[in-house]
Write a structure and sequence with these properties.
Elements lengths: L2 E3 L18 H8 L3 E5 L2 E4 L1 H20 L3 E2 L5 E3 H5 L13 E4 L6 E4 L4 H9 L10 E10 L14 E11 L2 H21 L6 E7 L6 E8 L5 E6 L5 E3 L5 H7 L6 E16 L9 E3 L5 E3 L1 E7 L1 H11 L1 E2 L2 E2 L10 E5 L4 H16 L4 E4 L5 H11 L3 E5 L1 H6 L1 E6 L5 E5 L5 H6 L4
Parallel strand pairs: 1-21, 4-8, 10-13, 20-21, 20-22
Antiparallel strand pairs: 2-3, 5-7, 6-7, 8-9, 9-17, 10-11, 11-14, 12-13, 12-14, 14-17, 15-16, 18-19, 22-23, 23-24
Length: about 425
Amino acid sequence: MVIMLQSHLFTKTRKETPKDEVSKNALLLIQAGFIHKEMAGVYSYLPLGLRVFNKICNIIREEVEAIGGQEVFLTVFQDKAVWEKTGRWSDELVDNWFKTESKYGGQQYGLGFTHEEPLTALVKDYVQSYRDLPIAIYQIQTKFRDEKRPKSGVMRGREFVMKDLYSFSRTEEEHNIFYEKAKQAYTNIFKRVGLGDKTHLTFSSGGTFSKYSHEFQTESESGEDIIYVDTKSGLAVNKEVLNDEVLKDLGLSRDALIEKKAVEVGNIFSLGTRFSEPFELVYSDEKGEKKPVIMGSYGIGPGRVMGVVVETLSDDKGIIWPASITPFHVHLLRLGDKKEVVEASEKTITLLEQAGIEVLYDDRDVSAGEKFADSDLLGIPARFVISDRMVAEGKIEVKMRKDGVVTTIDNSSLSLEYLNQLKDL
């Protein structure tokens, strides 16, 4: 299990917030040393931030693979000819392409902003018969979009990572079965990352092949969307599609709806044959007849989720990470370097390590005030303090970041049962 010495961490917290940021998530993540801004809309993940990011990705993997998703990793470079089949190479149709040209021969390439076209072309090489379906393929991969004004930190950037899942089915019925599984998987994901009670399945425009698509919208004052939440069911409707016909379809009453600002953290779409027809992605059914494959698309941005968690689960002192995605379960602060304090700290770390608890050990030679402030800013769920007084009393001071409650516990109380609870705060 991971034990990190804070004195070895090359990143440092900042006393001041960055002047060129306006979003809370960017302000806090940069100040706490989780990310580094390279340019507008482009951020690098530093050690603490990468630990959070990877935990979010792992939760997504577990839930997507539980419904049959198979992971791939496709190329960023996009072939112009592939995208011309659907017309989406056109800058008039897609206004956020990043495109480049080779110095050798002048070939044009795009940097992928999504992957429906290339994956449909790829699947065509492997699907011929009804026996080859259904399948679901996903990736967690870097995307590029030329956002005009990237000002929402890691929630909306020009370079970002997306989990994009694509389903390939024989019939509408088969597609709908998988679509419902994807809904549940998304619900599970947002619950596990700590956003479940603030995130609503939201009805939105469905486009050509379905009356509705579904967004997962998280209540947030920083949100760019307006949704209307039904107080009984928790379902929501995007303001863009709210009308009497939609309310009747969904069995909702306008009187029971509450207006909320929200951030879209995920979306799922039925694509029908929108992409399979241009690529002639067909299969032979039991009678030998050729039929087009029915597709669906399902997106979540892990970095966006991380940003929304910070926007919604933070206070005036800093970030408050849920246990499921925190960089460490315990932030152990050693106050002073007396032999007894050092030994007590190391003994506690051994107990934590044996229980599988991830620990950030603040062994730095700085003031207690600075350690306390940094601990609040970093947002690790449990803070353990070991000092002269605590050692003399045979105790450890414990503060829970979420509610700020401070208690002291006897060293003998560090049972396996107690320590395991730290993983679920």
